[in-house]
Amino acid sequence: MTAPIDEAIARVHHDEWARVVAGLARRFGDLDVAEDATAEAFAAAVEHWRRNGVPPNPGGWLIITATRRAIDRLRRESHRDAKYQAASMLIDNSPAVADGPIEDDRLRLVFTCCHPALSMEARVALTLRLVGGLTVGEIASAFLVPETTLAQRITRAKRKIKAAHIPYLVPSATEVQRRLTGVLAVVYLIFNEGYLPSGGDENLRTDLSGEAIRLGRLLRELLPSDGEVTGLLALMLLTGARHAARVPPDGELVTLGDQDRSSWDRDQLVEGWALVRERLAAVDAGAAPPGRYQLLAAVNSVHTYAPSANRTDWSQIVTLYDRLVEIEPSPVVRLNRAVALSEYDGPAVGLAEVDRLTDALADYHAFHAARAHLLRLLGRTDEAVAAYDTAIRLAGNPAEQRYLARRRDELRR
Amino acid sequence: MARYMLSVFGPTERTDFGDYDSKEAMLQAFADTGAFNEKLEREGYFVFADGLSAATNATTVDGRGAQPVFTDGPYLETKEHVGGFWVIEAPDLDVALALAAEGSKACRGRVEVRPFHTEQDIQEMLGS
């Protein structure tokens, strides 16, 4: 009976991986050493714990084991002064305080993996590997790239971190806000890749949204008073809760209005709503005005709170999008606002708004899908069919393509 | 401390005033760059800095064969070339990037930040 033990090991892996890698990275100043030693320690744990049970303090056991492995590795290496270095590292006397405003090794690791000097792809890969503990193979299959490509991407990024002296620290209080935006973008990108895969049908991609939520929880644990951190977690919970209803096993996308609301993940919704309420209270009490993630979370809480689609409070959603357009006047945000507006003020008003975005969004499938839907409601069938055709051509996601094709074919009868 | 090269890129085709549109713009950029250089010296980052003559004044030399070959012009055929550079010493990349941002603003050019090899890099290359 190893199953409960394996479950316990998997749980410890989730809970402790980032802490062990991050602690070792600080102590040894080298991400390679930290990652390899941590992976070895987990391999050793599987062996020992299956035989002897999970120790009372699994995190401590792992840190001690990983540290020994790292020191062994440094000893093996042929550097002239490695022995002295290894000896000095037996005692962890590196300063634990004084770098940034918040002191947690895991937060340093997150800021290093998401450093703006690294490409977005490298940031995503490093974060999933070093903070999330996913294997290179898992990350590669989730992003549909060959394993060797992904391994190279990680190796190159780690080499740059070392060669360019990308610091292993939490940025200063004034910098943290700016840099955090990039960190949140990485986590949201991971979430979206799992939530709306741009191609393929790998199971792991739903695991990716789960992993993003886990990273979101970690960030909230580390930065509990940051509104956007909380907002992003709430947004991912409220969106992710609808995943099963959105893409059922038969594989055709079900849009929000047609989803079976009873199949939404209630626990995730309750948690998301609580976070949105927490932010509303904080803003009322004088916290900074909500940013994009808090506003998007609020939009999704209005959607999910309605007992049925036709009882959605569209005026509130339009108001929230108005505020979002103020801080982020991008064409995609304006498209979402126009769609909400069409629910509130009718398809003609919505279409007029959508058509203003033609130049900016000509290559974006969701623009043509929205237009098709509005043209259909207005009885402009031929134009609707043409818009569906364009949307299908541009959509990369198969579930979405099937949904759009069915909608188009309904019009052709 | 790590050493970085901050290279400033500008168009290959220069105006009568180098990379600038007018004499006034050029003089203002020189003044701002001078002030930035003074800051680098004052705060202990400065190693060396200078501006380069036009890339068209470059000559490329290949001395690998029996006879050296001299070719008129820069080694790379690109629309933009290095127009000048700083060599600085900084504790880490974040500091180097912040300084590069100031330098870029001062000289009105885009700046590439590139670390130099360290003693440790070389040791590792020799060791592996």
From TrEMBL, chain A:
Q: Keywords assigned by UniProt?
A: Sigma factor, Transcription, Transcription regulation
**Which Pfam families does the entry mention?**
DUF6596, Sigma70_r2, Sigma70_r4_2
Residues of the RNA polymerase sigma factor 70 region 4 type domain? 111-161
> Molecular function terms in GO for this entry?
DNA binding; sigma factor activity
Gene3D superfamilies, per database record: 1.10.1740.10, Tetratricopeptide repeat domain, Winged helix-like DNA-binding domain superfamily/Winged helix DNA-binding domain
Gene Ontology biological process terms from the UniProt entry: DNA-templated transcription initiation
Is Metal-binding one of the keywords UniProt gives this record? no
Residues forming coiled coils: none
Domain DUF6596 intervals: 179-278
Which residue ranges does the record assign to the RNA polymerase sigma-70 region domain? 18-78
Which PANTHER family does this chain map to? BLL6612 PROTEIN, BLL6612 PROTEIN-RELATED
Provide the family line: Belongs to the sigma-70 factor family. ECF subfamily.
Put simply, this protein is called RNA polymerase ECF family sigma subunit
TrEMBL record, chain B:
Signal peptide residue numbers: none
Q: What region holds the YCII-related domain?
A: 24-115
Q: Which InterPro entries match?
A: Dimeric_a/b-barrel (IPR011008), YCII (IPR005545)
Enumerate the Gene3D superfamilies for this protein. Answer: Dimeric alpha+beta barrel
Q: Which family does it belong to?
A: Belongs to the YciI family.
User: Would you tell me the protein name for this molecule?
Assistant: YCII-related domain-containing protein
Species this chain originates from: Calidifontibacter indicus
